[in-house]
From TrEMBL:
Source domain of life: Bacteria
One biological process term in Gene Ontology: action potential
Presence of the UniProt keyword Mitochondrion in the record: no
Transmembrane regions listed in the UniProt entry: 38-57, 63-84, 148-171, 208-229
Gene Ontology CC terms: voltage-gated potassium channel complex
Record protein name field: Ion channel
Length: 267
């Protein structure tokens, strides 16, 4: 089944026809669109695995080839997202657009922009935002775990962002696994406020990095704990006041008392 809507005017320009077809692939729910979305999701996971393993693979002869292949994939996705966006301003204002442009730069110019390579880990966040992931959770009866999964993803993204930043700016060029492991060890010890002190980042930049890591890290850790222990809530905007988060069995809105009709998970 073609992703392009039936009855497309043949007189439309090539760009417009491509835009419609891409929108059908990215947002459609037919078999072809689902296959495309699953393929892109798996490709994102493979790219993420390559980024995480990057410090260990950098000396391999095939590293540069894979690096440029991934650059081509990200460039394609940037162009596709620009085509399907309502307008150029909307595309430019998307957070992942700027991130992907920086990631593309680090892939094309790895020696000059290696200090920004830590931003590649934000692909984890992009994967978690996929509508396909959300729909899969709901269809498999795990919709109540969306908040918990998102809190876990936010915490992991921040942890690996800090690890990547520390590695790029303080341990880059270290032999073997030592540099990345030291960066990860420092990040975990700082985020959890354990602070063993056996690895300390030098200079003013190191102190500021530790301060920001502790403040943001403990906030995300508390958010994760809340997602684990608090009662399950659903997203259902109140028709009267707009409050969007309610208990799964709520009958009235806690803010205004309006009668709610929250559908069952399976309905």
């Amino acid at each position: 089944m073609s992703a392009e809507p039936p009855g497309v005017d043949e007189s439309l320009s090539f760009i417009e026809r491509m835009r419609r077809q891409l929108r059908g692939l990215y947002f459609g729910r037919d078999r072809e669109a689902i296959r495309f979305q699953i393929g892109m999701l798996l490709l994102d996971v493979a790219i993420l695995a390559f980024f995480i393993a990057g410090p260990y693979l950098r000396k391999g002869s095939a590293y540069v080839i894979v690096d440029y292949l991934i650059a081509a994939v990200i460039a394609f996705e940037l162009c596709a997202r620009a085509l399907i966006a309502p307008n150029l301003r909307y595309w430019l204002m998307r957070p992942m657009t700027g991130v992907d442009i920086v990631i593309l730069g680090t892939l094309l110019f790895p020696n000059q922009l290696h200090n920004f390579a830590f931003l590649r880990v934000l692909r984890i966040w992009a994967i978690s935002q996929s509508k396909l992931v959300t729909l899969t959770l709901r269809r498999t009866g795990h919709g109540d775990k969306e908040d918990l999964i998102q809190a876990c993803v936010n915490f992991l993204v921040f942890l690996f962002l800090v690890t990547g930043f520390v590695y790029s700016n303080f341990f880059y060029g270290a032999e073997g696994f030592a540099g990345f492991v030291d960066a990860l060890y420092f990040s975990v010890a700082t985020v959890t406020t354990t602070g063993f002190g056996d690895i300390v980042l030098p200079g003013t930049l190191g102190k500021l990095t530790a301060i920001v890591t502790m403040i943001v890290g403990i906030s995300l850790f508390v958010r994760l704990a809340q997602a684990i222990v608090r009662p399950y809530k659903v997203t259902f905007p109140c028709p009267q006041c707009g409050l969007s988060r309610h208990d799964a069995d709520a009958v009235h809105c806690k803010a205004c008392g309006h009668v709610l009709n929250i559908p069952d998970e399976g309905s």
